[in-house]
Amino acid sequence: SLGVQDFDPEVQRAVNRVQPEGETRAVIDAARAAGFRSVSIDLIYGLPKQTLDTMRQTIDKVIAASPDRIAVYHYAHMPQLFKPQRRIVEADMPSSDTKLRMLQLCIERLCAAGYVYIGMDHFARPEDDLAVAQRQGRLHRNFQGYSTHADTDLVACGVSAIGAVGATYSQNVKTLEEYYELLDQNELPVARGFRLGMDDALRRSLIQKLMCQFEVSIAALEQAFPIVFDKYFAAELVQLRRMEADGLVSVGPDWLTVTMKGRLLIRNVCMVFDRYLAGRPDAPRYSRTV
C-alpha cells in the first residue's frame, strides 16, 4: 500500500510531503516485478491547495498506474493533536462543499474506469477479493478498514495498538517505556478494554451491514437479536425519516437502504445508530466527516 495522498506538487509542498510521481510509479513497477499479488494506493481529499481540477488530474494519474485497490480518505485536520499539522495554512483548505464534490468526482471517475465502489473510501477492481466479498455478502469492516476476514480475532502488537478478541476490544499503552515494562513483568501491555453487551453487538452488526452492503434486512436483524426494530430504534427512526426526506436513505417495512446519494454520507447515516455519540452530543469529535 502506497500513501500517495496527492500527485500535485503544490499540494505536496503545502502538506510538507513531497513525493514525485515517478518515484511512486517506480515502486509500483518494482512491486509488480517482485510478484506482489495486490498493489493499493491511498489518496486524501480536503488537503490545502487542492481543487477539483487538481483532484481530477491526480485521479487520472492513479487510474493510469492501474493499482488493484484505491483508498480515498478525508483529511482530518487536528493540529491540536498532531504538531506537524500546525504548519498547514487553514485558509488554503477547501470548503466542505468542495470536499464533497471531490469525493463525488473520485467515485464517478473511478467507477467509469472500471473500479467497484466498495464503500466509504475504498475502491477495487472487480476481480479483487474485496469486490468479490461484497458481491457475496462476506465483506467486513473493522477499525483498520474493509476486510474479507469476518469474525477474525485481532491481536494488538505495539504501542497504542487496538485488539479485538471475541466480544471485547482493548488498546495497548501509548509509550514504549510502559509497553516494555509490562512485558518484562509478564503482563499484557493493555491500557484499557471494553466488553460488548447485547446492544453493542446489535448496533455493530447493523452498522457493519450499512457500511459494507448499504442495506439492512430488518427481519434478519430481528431474528438474530431479541428486538422489534421499530420499537427498539424508535428514536433513531425519527432521524432516519429526516434523512429519507433528504434522499439519503429509504426506510421500508422490510429493509433500511442507503441511496446512491446517501453513500457519500454513509458515516453520517451510521452515526445515527452510535449510542455513544448520541449520549454525548457535546463530546469532541476526532475529525469531521466532510
The helix content is 40-55%
Strand content: 15-25%
Radius of gyration: 21 Å
Would you count the extended β strands for me?
13
Q: Number of helix segments?
A: 13
Low-pLDDT windows of residues: 283-287
**Distance between the ends:** 24 Å
Based on Cα principal axes, name the global outline: globular
Q: What is the CATH architecture annotation of the largest domain?
A: 2-Layer Sandwich
Strand order of the largest sheet: 1-2-3-5-4
Would you list the SSEs in sequence order as H and E?
A: EHHEHEHEEHEEEEHEHEHHHEEHHH
CATH class identity of the largest domain: Alpha Beta
Task: Pick out its properties.
single chain, 290 residues, alpha+beta, Transcription Regulator spoIIAA, Arc Repressor Mutant, subunit A, 3 domains, five-stranded mixed beta sheet, 13 helices, 13 strands, 41% helix, globular
How does this model look, in words?
- By secondary structure, the protein is α+β, with helices and mostly antiparallel strands.
- The protein has three domains: 145 residues, Transcription Regulator spoIIAA; 34 residues, no CATH class; 72 residues, Arc Repressor Mutant, subunit A.
- It contains 13 helices and 13 strands.
- A five-stranded mixed sheet has the order 1-2-3-5-4, sandwiched between helices.
- Helix 3 packs parallel to helix 4.
Write the layout of secondary structure elements.
Layout: E1 2-5, H1 9-14, H2 21-33, E2 40-45, H3 52-65, E3 69-74, H4 96-112, E4 116-119, E5 122-124, H5 129-135, E6 140-142, E7 145-147, E8 162-165, E9 168-172, H6 176-184, E10 190-195, H7 198-213, E11 215-217, H8 218-224, H9 229-232, H10 234-245, E12 249-251, E13 255-258, H11 260-263, H12 266-271, H13 275-279
